[in-house]
Structures are given as C-alpha cells and as structure tokens.
Amino acid sequence: MRKILAGTFLLSHLLTIGCSQASREVKTSTQTITAATQAQNNPLKLTLELKDNRYQNKPQSRLELTIANTGEQALPAKGWKIFFNSSRLRTADSTVIQVKHYNGDLYYLAPGSKFKEIAPGKSAKIEIAGRSFRNYTDFPLGLYLVLDNNPKKGMPVAFEIKPGTHFQQSEQALAAKIFKENQIIQNIPAEKLTKVFPTPVTYQEKGQPFILNEETIIVADKDFQREAESLAQTLQGIMGTKPAIQNQGNGKAIRLRKAQNIPSEGYELKVNPNGIEIIASAPAGAFYGIQSLKTLLPASAFAGRVNAVTVSGLEVKDAPRFGYRGFQMDMARNFQPKAEVLKVLDVMALYKMNVFHFHFSEDEGWRLEIPSLPELTTVGATRLHDPESKTGLLPSYGSGPDNTTAAGTGFYSRTDFIEILKYARDRHIRVIPEIESPGHARAAIKAMDARYERLIKEGKKAEAERYLLRDLNDKSTYRSVQGWNDNVIDVSLPSTYNFLETVVDDIRAMYKEADAPLTTIHFGGDEVPGGVWAKSPAVKALMSKDKSIKTVDDLWYYYFGKVNQLVKARNLYLSGWEEIGLKKVVQNGKVNWIPNETFANQNFHVNVWKNSPGSGAEDLAYRMANAGYKVILTGVTHLYLDLAYNTSYYEPGQYWGGYVDLEKPFYFIPYDYLRNLREDDNGNPINRATIKSKEPLTAKGRANIVGMEAPLWSETNRSPQDFEYKMLPKLLSVAERAWSKDPAWATEKDATKGQNMYNQAWSEFVNVVAKRELPRLDVYSGGFNYRIPTPGAVIQDGKVTANVQFPGYTIRYTTDGSEPTATSPEYTQPVTAQGTIKLKAFNPAGRSSSTVTLENK
C-alpha cells in the first residue's frame, strides 16, 4: 500500500526438471495422494536453493526447487496445485511444471504435461530463473497443497530456503559502510545528556535534585484530575504505593498547576529539592509534562518497586512544533492483537505522539466489527483457502490454507474498539479510522457479496442489494499494484453510499460511547488502477444521467465530492491519501497528476507519501500545501517504518521505496526535506540535479503543513515481535522530529559547519536513545522487541576492526564459525584470527543483534 511494487522475487520461467532415477521409475499403480488422505500433515517438503543471484551477469537469479514427497502416497503426475504467497511474482509456463498467478500475492505451482509422479520418499528437482534477490522476505511463503478433486481443502507444505553464499560480498561491504558511519558517533557520558525526550524547547539543569518516595503526594488543579490519576498509577507501579491526590497541600509534592499563556500542548516543568511542578494551560500540556517527568526517571524505576528515585533538578519550557504527530498502524494486512495496540498507544504517549491512524480495512482484511454489517468480520476478517471467497478471504502474506493463523484471521470487537478509544483518549491521542476506498477494498467487497448471497437465498432481493459494492454485470478488467483484479468499489452505485453511511455511523456511535474525539475519517483514495469502471453498466447509466461525468476519470471527483458531503453533514472533515486532492491532466503529451483546485480549500487533509528521488513527485507535498491542501508529511523516503533498515539479506522488511533506518527520520527536515534527500531506492547517493528545479515550500504552504506521520505497513509483520522490531527504535527519531523545533544544523547555510553541527547532534541523539530510552523500553509496558544494530566491521591490515552504533553496547565474536553468544569473547581490540569471524552486538540486558560474518583470509 502506498507503494509501487517492483524489483523483488520474480519466478519468470522454468527451465528444466531432473527427477531422481527412482522417482522416474515409479509405476502408475502406485497409490497417490487423494482427497481421502488429505488429513495427513505436510505430505511434501519443498526446498528452494539460490544457485546464482547474478545469472548470466544480469539482475536475475537461477534457483533449484526440490519437491520431496515426505508422505505415504505418491504425488500424482497431474491434478494438484501448490499455492504460495509472493507479492511480486509473474506467471511462468513449462511442459513440466507451471507457475501461475491466482490473485493478489497468491500464486501456484501446477504440473505440466511432462511432469512425472513422485513416489513416497522420492523427490524431483526443478531449475527456476527469476530476478535477483535482495533480502529473505523476497522468497515465497505460506505454501499449501490443493488437489483438483477437492479444491476447497488445503494441506500445509513444509518449505525451506537455502540462500547460499551469494550475499557474502555485499554483507561484508555493508559492514564496512556501517563501520564508517559509526565512526562519527562519540561516546558521551550519561550525565551530560539531555534527560528529557523528545528534546524540549528550553532545558536547564539546576543541580539540586528531588527525592521521589512513598511520602510524595500529588497536588492537582481540578482540571487535571485525569492526568493526576494517570501519574499516580505510574508511581504506584514504581514504588508499590499509590500517592494521594489532593486539590491543595503543603510539603514535598508533585504539583500540576494551571496557568494561562501557555500553548494547549505546552508545559513548564520545574524540579528542585522541594518538589516537582508541572504548569500547563490545558490537560494535554499537563499530560506531556508528566511524560517528560517519566523520561527523567531512570529506566530501572520501571523495572520494579523501588524505595526512592532521584529526579534531576532542572527547568524546562516546552511545546510541540506540530499539532499532528502521527503513527499509522496497519492491522489489516496482517492482524495484531488488542494488547499490541494498547502497547503502541503507551509508547506513543510516552514520546508525545498524538494521532493514531487506525488502518483497519484493506484488500486482505477488515478488522473492525460493524454491528450493522456482520459479514465485514465473519468473512472480511477471516483468511483461508476458499477460491470463491464466500467464507473468508484468500490467503495472503503467508497466512496459509486455514483460519488458524493469528496474523491472517482476527478482528477487534465493538467492545475492543471502545476500549482502545478510551485508552487513547486518556493519553491525549486522537484515533483516525481509515475506511479504504474506492480501491484497496476487496475485503469489504467480498463481505458484501456474502451478505448479498445470504439475503438472496432468503428471498430478500432489495435488502440484498442495499449494500452491494460492485456492479454484478461489470465486465471491466484491471490489475491493482498489489495484483488484485476485484478490489475496487463501484462508485456509481447508490448502494456504495448506503454502505459508507452505515459504516461511518456505526463508527461514530462507538466514539460517542467511548467519549472520544472524532474530527475526521480517512477514506484512503489511492492506487486505483486503470481499467476500472470502464465496462460497468451502472457507470454507463450514471454518465448518461450526469453530464458532468464525461470519462471514467471524472468518477474520481464525483466520488470524493459525495464522500466530502457525507462527512461534512456529520461535522467531520475528509482525510485521505494524496490522490484525493489530485487530478489527471495531459501536459506535453504526458499524463501528469497535479493538485485539483476543486477541493483545494475545502479542508481536505492529505497524507502525501510520494517523494522518491527520480519519481517526479519529490516536491508533491509542498506543491499540495502551496495549493491549499492541509498536508501531513508521510514521505516514503524517511518515514515508512516497514521498510528494511538496510540492504542486508538478513534484514526483514520491504525496500521498494528505499531503506529507512534510525537516522533517516532524524535528518528529515520537515520544511526543507528536499535538502536532505540523499539516497535513491537502492540506498545509493542521488544525483542532486534531479531535484534542483523542484517547487519549494511557500509561506502559505508552510501554514498548511499540519504535521508528520510514520506508517508501519504490515505485509512482513506476522507477530508482535516482527512489528516492534520495525517500529523501534525508528519511532524515536520520528517523535523527535515531529515534536522538537528545527535543530541548528537544519538551517545552517555553511555546509561544513552544518555537517559538524549535525555530527554532534546525531551523536547526542544516539547516546540518549542507547543509554536512556532503550533501557526504558526493555521494561516499559511489558517491554519491546526493538532492533539492536549490527556491528560495523572492516578488514584492515589483516585484522578485523569493529564498532557499534550505540555507545555502551558490547560486541562479541567467534573465530570457529559458531554463532556469538553472551559468553563469547568480548571485542576490545582488532581480531587477528584468520578464517570466518562472526560478530554480534549485545545490549546491556543481553539481547543481541543479527550476525555479521567476515572472511579474514
């Protein structure tokens, strides 16, 4: 989503097959796998071995696929398919075996006319060619076997990937690159670090601390009672005793005091031996003052009960740069449990982020119960092998043939969502729900198809048609960027708007019950492919009736005009991806997208993600802001947290939009990000000439930049651990840049001076993250599975020299080819041993990074 899918694993054609001698001699009388024997587990094991990742000196690969029959019956010569997920595959045919696209990221292998039966215990080897691989998430996953005579039943298939040694050279080059980058990082003593995070507007240490203990009370203004209760619960978790909350009182206390002339989210924090004072004009400001107090506390305070905590004496005056500091959690493509959502809200609140973009609907899943339309979750929140998608959606992203995979099947009940809304409300976080439309809507479309069939069987034709999202007689053909041919809502149907109104009103009712603020609903609006609606009788009828719709392209403006009316009638404003505010024009014989003046000043809030170097859209966020749209900076190059940290084969995540590490959001300059577009999508330095003529942000446009948002899409997140690994510590860079003012280096005109200033600021930030915030996240809200950076390493003068991004972390190594552990030798000086050297970085808690391997010859 929000991405051009290209450049990863492509099974382009099959070359040869070589079955073992024994399997070639299998007689036709051998018992074969049948529908009656499908209960057996893993009847096959497939192994995909990468033989050449630069085949014929081109960006393509040569692989060997082994199909081993581990069951008790033969795999027949025909009559079966092996399905698998791979988001960028293409159809390939052979007389021996075929690779075909099914829908979305679902493909299958099927035997060709010359495929030979494989007897139990035997195997066949197939040579395959494809594009070059970059990381292990390129490979297929979620394999299962389906027999043609029982097409609704799937059996899981064991699968193994053998990448070989093809990445050794690039891994060694990456280790050297990381080593060079780490060299500018200084080890700064903890006592010299800023102790409030994100960086406040002003910060001054006074040297006289306050001792926080079980005798401390909270004295709070009546308007700050909810914030006082939250603070009391935090302190109870630290010291075991919940402090009393009073409206007034003397003695040593934490005081939440109301005052005027402070921004609504601003605060003042004062710590001295007599107590702690947090001054704010509104509850949000008091809350953020409390979060700053939390970051003042040592990480150990959150690990268990302590008798007393020393809080550094200081004075802080602070307020955010942006009123919109967002994080988007995609739980639609792969589901995350409610407990994980609450953890996300906890960490967002700690770092003063205030907008939670709740991406609950997609092609691959609808995750929010809508009581008026139960099929949205009974069908739309279930993934399993149902070719007709009547009882659930097709398997995606490795969810497999049945509905037992936690990442594939699941939803939030109405009660769950109300709890989430209350939890966010109490942490001053707005929740923006996203109803994906008109594209990315397959889950909703299939769910309403199932509702239609149920009611037709009951003889209720009019009710059945009330919420249909497609014209049943539409013959249009298209293919979305993610491979779907049936995922776009027909915007000409009155039933489409019945559906949207019902969903919106059910959602509004949940917000009302939760007493949570709802100011906008996000309606998606991106990546609708060409070909949609072209052969829809309903569209043709609408165009004959409404003469303002001259082409199917005009349906775009028709749709969002109606959606805008829908939300405005409910005192909401419209949010969406950038396409809701763009129109297609032909300029110099080329199709271009430019800001649509029709909606430019109607308070449309747009998440602008396109800014990749060379795309022509590098300045799109600024162009839209200059034109009058309210823009949330969501640039893929710096803020897409699902992208892999770096180019390592072992680093999980996608890379279609480049790579995003901890530093990318840190050096993002919101009002001048073109200045810091440094890398292309391959991680290589860009040609600055490609962005010289781009449109800068005007004074009017600057006023329309409402904030920043970092999305974390979920294609490769199949567990909370996967999700947290990509989220953290990157989210800390996002929080810093969204809250804090422009650092001095961002506006310095002298390049050399600016670079020196940047190096110092980056060192300070990395030290704060490593020494203060990550130890806190080891225990905060149950602890987070943040990523630990791999060591940098080079071979110099026959020795392996290493360093690590995070000061205070330990590097351990082995010289015998084994994996380093917490008891392996600690790296303290260059390693002189020859052969295979493996290194890992360890945090103070003993958790490690992935391995770096060097061959010292």
Automatic annotation (TrEMBL):
Reactions this protein catalyses: Hydrolysis of terminal non-reducing N-acetyl-D-hexosamine residues in N-acetyl-beta-D-hexosaminides
Residue positions of the active site: 527 (proton donor)
The family this protein is said to belong to: Belongs to the glycosyl hydrolase 20 family.
GO molecular function, one term: beta-N-acetylhexosaminidase activity
One annotated Gene Ontology cellular component of this protein: membrane
Domain of life of the source: Bacteria
Protein's name according to its UniProt entry: beta-N-acetylhexosaminidase
EC identifiers of the protein: 3.2.1.52
Organism: Adhaeribacter rhizoryzae
Signal sequence region: 1-22
UniProt keyword terms in alphabetical order: Glycosidase, Hydrolase, Signal
Keyword Hydrolase attached: yes
